[in-house]
Design goal:
Mean pLDDT: 93
Order of helices and strands: EHHEEEEEEHH
Shape: globular
Helix content: 25-40%
CATH superfamily: START domain
Number of domains: 1
Strand order of the largest sheet: 1-7-6-5-4-3-2
Structural class: alpha+beta
Radius of gyration: 15 Å
Low-confidence stretches: none
Strand content: 25-35%
CATH topology: Alpha-D-Glucose-1,6-Bisphosphate, Chain A, domain 4
Oligomer: single chain
Distance between the termini: 42 Å
CATH class: Alpha Beta
CATH architecture: 2-Layer Sandwich
Length: about 150
Amino acid sequence: MPRVELDLETPVPPDRIVAALTDFTDRRPDIWPGISRSWYEVYSVGDRSADIREGTGGKRSSIWAKEHYDWSTPGLVTWTVRESGFCAPGSFGSAKVDPTDGGGSKVHITWQREPTTAMAKLISWFIKATNGMPVASSFKRGLARVERQQAGAG
């Protein structure tokens, strides 16, 4: 199962990062650039978990997943695939968010997906070969949006 791990830092405090990762309102696609509005659907949201569908591209795209989000462990958000057009159930991603000395956050991302289609295998190979560059890029863009929101609120 292809797996990459990477670390990112941001001046945004951990609680704001976890809040952005667990924001299942209609703002979610505005925060996280890898989520297309056409695929985004919320099935349920609880105090520490949610079931949603996310994807990228148009409705004919096979890059989508119904995922179970869990944030019952403080500072850790994990999303596990239940059903998908590109990867096997049980595939997952996670973000461990820890404080830094300066009041910001270090985000440790684990991306582990078992591709099920030829296109997904190619994408997974590229992600693995580039040490997670597409995953990191998407997260960096989302974190930059959260930083801008924080700057506007402060």
